[in-house]
């Protein structure tokens, strides 16, 4: 039950023409390795963790754009009001972490990953 609810909050974006476009085929699902392509940039938003992943054939300019857009996503609004679970507070035990808000908590993770150098 918990696993299914938390997976539904997963958001995956692709960098397309200097914009982050939601990947509707993988939105709200468990990410798979088949998503990764050497020529693409993906942003994985797991609520408490946001990762920018880029393939080894992505240009420096694309990487910079993706990083800036992901930072905007990180600092922007989030809304888990329609989700069964809030990935920022799955146990709903912290009244300071709302289902809707602006920016991520200080303890959340923002990371960058490069193809074949994933952690």
From TrEMBL:
GO cellular component, one term: cytoplasm
Gene Ontology MF: a single term: actin filament binding
Transmembrane parts of this sequence: none
Highest taxon, organism lineage: Eukaryota
One GO BP annotation of this record: actin filament severing
Protein name listed in UniProt: Gelsolin-like domain-containing protein
């Amino acid at each position: 039950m918990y696993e299914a609810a938390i997976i539904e909050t997963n958001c995956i974006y692709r960098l397309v023409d200097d914009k982050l476009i939601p990947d509707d085929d993988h939105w709200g699902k468990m990410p798979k390795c088949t998503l990764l392509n050497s020529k693409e940039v993906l942003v994985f938003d797991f609520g408490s963790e946001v990762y920018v992943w880029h393939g080894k054939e992505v240009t420096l300019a694309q990487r910079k754009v993706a990083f800036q857009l992901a930072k905007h996503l990180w600092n922007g609004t989030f809304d888990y009001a329609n989700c069964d679970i809030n990935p920022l507070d799955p146990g709903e035990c912290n009244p300071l972490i709302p289902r809707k808000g602006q920016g991520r908590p200080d303890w959340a993770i923002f990371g960058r990953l490069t193809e074949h150098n994933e952690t």
